[in-house]
Input
Amino acid sequence: MTKTTQTKTYHAGPMLCMQGQGVVKGYAIGKAVVMGVTALEVDHYRISPETVSAECERLRNAMAAARDELRRLAETLPADAPRELGPLLTVHSLLLDDSTLIGQVCDLITHQHYNAEWALTTQGQLLEEQFAIMSDDYLRERGSDIRQVIERVLRVLSGTSGSAIHDLDTPDSGESLIVVARDISPTDMLRLRDGRFSAFLTDLGGPASHTAIVARSMNVPAVVGLGHFRGLVRDGDMLVVDGFTGSVLVNPSPYILDEYVQRQADFLRERQELVRLRDAPAVTIDGVAVELHANIEQPDEARLALDAGADGIGLFRTEFLFMNRRELPSEEEQFNAYADVVRVMQGRPVTIRTLDVGADKGLDEDVVVATNPALGLRAIRYCLANPEVFVTQLRALLRASRFGHIRILIPMLTNVHEVHEVRQALQAAKEQLMAHGHDAAFDVSLGAMVETPATAIAIEPFAETLDFLSIGTNDLIQYTLAVDRGDGEVAHLYDPLHPAVLRLIANVINAGERYGIPVAMCGEMAGSAELARLLLGLGLTSFSMHPQQLLDVKKEITGAHSTALRAAVASALNRSERIHLSALD
Ligand code: PEP
Ligand code: MG
Output
């Protein structure tokens, strides 16, 4: 996907270096293509009182035209479009239908005599500010939906196409091109999926933004949150993108450009060498076989897992099927999604986690703001409090299990009685299916995410009653160290190597060995090549991670000696010492 640079000629503008957040690793060197009209560029003028009704009519017509465009887009979505796009287009259409929004904008035209564009951006900014102060991360990011809808109407008003990328509809010249945008809507992102672009840069967005999600699935380097970068760059400027550090250089000196050409070549060579490992077994030097599974958020990512040589799906985060929409997915929709993944994985195990909502992952219907959402009604607690939602999901999972090997994974279990309640719900789902003529041989295993210190410490009853365990280190670290995993202010305290965290992980792995049940890890720690030796030393033999990370981790495993690592890690843990990774090389 990454295009190499063939030319060293570059625009002679001033050199500039900007820092954003790298959300997809890799390097890109290419010419800037700056995306079109945004809310920042509209004309602001006052209209005469006689033209008020004509101006309101102009606004209504533009909104209707934007709605038509969205309808056409929804009807022509390609088969490989991310699943969330259909519902997202519906949300955008509903915003355009919102009579309150139209009324408020017309009020500004009528009483303040603003032109339609000015009235629309003023009202849009007000709404965006209301979203920006919401405490829920997910809802906060929904402010971008308002912005994207408003920019679509602005483009209609300005007579350009409804897409911000109309100016990019040029044939592929073979040149390396880098998109620079204020924000990229998911629909525009779709039109950019054709391999013409080497990187994506946006002023707005975070790691959970749609730009980041789609760029990750395209495996194209991306940097988001660049501030006012778009206003500082011109079409044709030479850009260097470092997706590792999040830095972007504009018109660098030939010396720096050479350096990055070299880094890009080294990176691509390393990736190519790694591909050779795809079909190699993940076995340590001393013969310990390790399973490498993939984490996915959308059914279509199962293909990436298979291409990377994954032994199965270790974590399917099903909540992404439930988010960004007004109605929950039906049993049928869920069944199709789960069955798709199972079929793609051709008999390999597929571990599907039941709905893990709450905290940073809210549903659109959630309006209650908990005082401490990370400790509130989330994950299995939400499901047990909403049995209809839970049992519907379980029915879909049981039906999909006919097509292969499904393992049901329960998030945030803390009490053994929750396991009993889950089993009752599972039984209810089976009985309902049987009452509707499905026969009884549903073959699923049941496992727990170990994400709270309580479960990791008192693990025995879980190991005794369940079929497998999977350690969710992202939450386990947050709850053990009392550090919010999404709060940049305390990020320096979020420490996977803290002795308390490592002891809890060791405790869970040891219990798995004693009770003879498999223990996997599906938190971010499992995808870090730097930590692979440490985890082997703790006795971990099943890792689950983003498909892109799989070969890096496999390389570490094939070069490691498990017995020696286990002895070194056990002795450090016994001495309560902080482990130094360099001591495990
Ligand atoms: C975890 O907590 O480690 C985990 C895998 O779940 P999530 O990141 O979805 O909370
Ligand atoms: Mg978790």
Q: What stands out?
A: Residues 411, 451, 472, 474-475 surround magnesium ion (ligand 2) (CB under 6 Å). Residues 297 and 320 are 6 Å apart (CA to CA). The two ends are 33 Å apart (CA to CA).
